[in-house]
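Supplementary Text 2. Reproducibility record for the structural model of the 106-residue chain.

All settings were left at their defaults, and a single model was retained for analysis rather than an ensemble. We include the record here because the model underlies the residue-level annotations in Supplementary Table 4.
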Amino acid sequence: MKRLLWLGVGLAVGALVVRKLTQKANEFTPSGIAGSVSQSAGGLVESVRAFMDDVRVNMAEREQQIHEAFANGVQFEDEFEDLRGDDLPVEFDEPGTSTHPRQRHN
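Retained model, structure tokens:
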């Protein structure tokens, strides 16, 4: 009787191992790889979409702050002024030249 019990346990464990190995092997077939890539690309697209939504919301909020400051006649504090390079000396060429003033670094 004990032998039949252990034979049943062995068959069950063997079946589970074969099933798991078959699933892992299917992941490396062309269709399995395509499914994995599809899921990864879907996650990437969703992450980019969420990022763009956050940018739009924050951009609208910032724009509202600027409009309110302009409507109230107060000077708006620009936190990023020093990062833009507005302090570079600007030299203007003769009219008709197409070089932007910030592109000239002598």
